[in-house]
Amino acid sequence: MNDKNVRIKDIAQLAGVSVGTVDRVLHNRGKVSPETLEKIMGVLKKKGYKPNLLARTLGSNKKFFIAALIPDPTLDEYWAHSNAGITEAQEEWSHYNIKVGTFYFNLYDKASFAKLAAKVFDSRPDAILASPIFHQEAMLFFKLCSKNNIPYIFFNSNVPEVEPLCFIGQDFYQSGRLGAELLDLSTKASGTFAILHIYEDIHNAIHLAQKEKGFIDYFLEKNNQGFKAISLDYSHPQEPSLEKELLALLTDPKMKGLLVTTSKGLFITASFLEKHGRKDIRLVGYDLLRENIEYLKKGVIDFLIHQNPKRQTALGISYLANYMLFKKTIPNTDLFPLEIITRQNLKTFNI
Amino acid sequence: MNDKNVRIKDIAQLAGVSVGTVDRVLHNRGKVSPETLEKIMGVLKKKGYKPNLLARTLGSNKKFFIAALIPDPTLDEYWAHSNAGITEAQEEWSHYNIKVGTFYFNLYDKASFAKLAAKVFDSRPDAILASPIFHQEAMLFFKLCSKNNIPYIFFNSNVPEVEPLCFIGQDFYQSGRLGAELLDLSTKASGTFAILHIYEDIHNAIHLAQKEKGFIDYFLEKNNQGFKAISLDYSHPQEPSLEKELLALLTDPKMKGLLVTTSKGLFITASFLEKHGRKDIRLVGYDLLRENIEYLKKGVIDFLIHQNPKRQTALGISYLANYMLFKKTIPNTDLFPLEIITRQNLKTFNI
DNA sequence: GTGAAAGCGCTAACAA
DNA sequence: TTGTTAGCGCTTTCAC
Predict the structure, then answer these.
(1) Is A341 left (phi over 0), alpha (psi -120 to 50) or beta?
(2) Whole-model pTM?
């Protein structure tokens, strides 16, 4: 066992060529005769050559620019976490000549997405990390990127049609099943359980549908035990009507628990339950946002499901960096663990 | 805004000295006159100099050796996961001239720990990652390391007396509270809950005591609601007597749930409950081991608490690498999130 | 105390 | 098609 790492120079010597030639085959830049190519290849694998990545990036002296296209973090707490992940990764990868630029669009405004996308393009990025929440607009833009050979990774939502390098997010179906299970586990008697979509943003429709399917399937599978699942959609309601509807929903004496699919809907529901003193109703929802955490602590919310938005973006940047710098292969899709948060493990996630 | 990074050369120029001198102040190796020192310091912070870490490690051409001292992974599935984390990190850091050597001792044999520790020392490591499960022996050994200025990080268990660079593990107290909470949440009526230490290895005593305290405290705080907590210690029992004891324990009609603190104890208890058809008893335990997972899937175990042993060791290596390579400061203690595993989120943790 | 220069492993422009 | 060589930014030895 030779302790020393084999260098290009060693390979060159063994193959009886110069380092330049070896470098050419390593990066298959051509201009190498078949014979020497074969010979070098042979030595390469025989000695198990592994490039020194430090020397590589130092020597090549390339700068990479990654554009991150995400919703404005100042407008929404959830996206602030995504943004934090980008900041973190930015710091980590700055050593490697990788710069990250952020482009914030308005979560509620398609036009702003298109406008920012154009800006992203103008910045001539080497790669893009994006949350393509406006499906149509995203499709157009990323087709353009595709044509220009700009690699992109999506997180949070996906647009499979434009085949991103990778999608980082959660398994929404399984996520709905988990919500159902948590309600089930925390309610010993059988009864009725509802899944609520409140203040759904139109671009979330697909996710919510998948969550709903998971929720319903879970209970269907135990149908014989008297579970029921109801799906309610309170998108863009007038406040008073929402309150009335919730009231009506909860008159059902068999109603045992609610899964709320949107973070905002969650704390509205929580405040409703608290106001009406409905401690008999179990409540499960998504995201570690401030108000949700408060209601979790108070015991109004029983479980939160955490999507780890910060880690999603940090990983996205890492993937792109590894892809460009080291030609690493990236998985098509990386679905995160569904993390369950309760009062007792909350602080261990130190958010 | 100057886009170009300031290099040592730039600093030297601005300060009217040579790169050698700048390097000397950067690493305060002395041999610099007070005046030039001051001048260089000035330029340094004025220009916000940040060293290029790649060039640094490449230039210094140092090799680091980290010794990992852990229980034999072939003897116990839990430690196989710890070992996997080391392998993973090994790969990741090999680029940086960091080698990791593993030293496996027998989990059940103090003498083997001492023997392997001696081997570790003989290997002249630059740093050590260890699970110091034999308190006395570890104390002796790491005092020696301390004297020899070999930094060490502990994971899984701690020996605070020898002040490791960092302890990576879980908050055992909170972990016990979480176990209690999960039992509580999944049992609507009040009743009796027990915490069981089965086949406890003597060196685990402290952890188990902390878990127990967390468990008991949780229920004490709701004492008024009729909860009870019982602590049972079935260390090193004869098999038949254990079965008898469990049988006796479960005759209590108020018994609602069990928290088992050791992985082995957990699947023994699970198989017991299954055999006797006690579906009325909730069961919570630790670690994503094969048999535990099976019982979770079957519904005999309701929740598993995951300690992420793989990530613990991978992080340990990362910390040491960053410490030696980049002089990064490491937290004294890194307590991991307590991850809750159920049937529905199990697969998303793709173990 | 200080500076010059070689070298870390790799890249890429240029000569041959 | 191949070899040579000057960097990349930093460390470290050695001479002054």
Answers:
(1) beta
(2) 0.91
